[in-house]
From TrEMBL, chains A, B:
DNA-binding recorded as keyword: yes
Residue intervals of the HTH arsR-type domain: 1-94
UniProt protein name: DNA-binding transcriptional regulator, ArsR family
Transferase recorded as keyword: no
NCBIfam families: HTH_metalloreg
Keyword terms of this UniProt record: DNA-binding
Coiled-coil spans in chain: none
Amino acid sequence: MFHDSAQLDLMFQALADPARRMMVERLSRGSASVSELAEPLDMSLSAVMQHLQLLETSGLVRSEKVGRVRTCRIEPKGLSMAESWISERRSTWERRLDRLGDFLAAQSKTNPKE
Amino acid sequence: MFHDSAQLDLMFQALADPARRMMVERLSRGSASVSELAEPLDMSLSAVMQHLQLLETSGLVRSEKVGRVRTCRIEPKGLSMAESWISERRSTWERRLDRLGDFLAAQSKTNPKE
DNA sequence: TCAATTGTAAAGTGGATGCTTAACTATTGC
DNA sequence: GCAATAGTTAAGCATCCACTTTACAATTGA
């Protein structure tokens, strides 16, 4: 119910980049190494690392290194935080529009010519 | 189903700022003028205008001017686009985790000691 | 009519973002 | 051991972003 504003900043910021969304998309289909994440992206490994770091500090992704391979996966709680902020706003204005609709319906019943 | 990447960039970018989220939050409770949007925000009207412009080009908000007052409202289709991108990703990994759970359950039935 | 209100436009500024390249470390397979 | 693989760190750079200030325009109410 209570949203940490700073964390929402980071999450939406993280999702605002096509490369990072691609990475999230890839990870939603299963865990992957850094180079696997980099493979479809037209940029250096170093750049991918920087995107990954942002995804981690935003809480959308976590990773751990075993041997020389770092394996990344989705952090389930992450996306739901962003999603729920949006859906709470949406339900607020949907309820409001409903009440407005009711009001207008009632109006036209009482004063059909107005 | 098909997401315009550039528009998603703009939407998530728009939501990545606390001032703009406040504006969306305010508008989800009903339409408002530019100065009403500005009132709780600790910045110049000019700055609020610039945030508003971003919200408009991202498709989250629309506005129209009557007399000297510009009235702003939520664009219903806007938020749902961002929301649905997230929820599609979520359902992908949720399905995957389900399958993984099934697999592990089957494993432990066949090889209870492994 | 004229002053207050409401909004716009333009230019400037400091700091964040999204890369790059280069140099380096740790692990693995032969 | 040693070359290839996988990742990490740091520095640098162009561009974008979130404001500000200043000046201006249109509308309204007394």
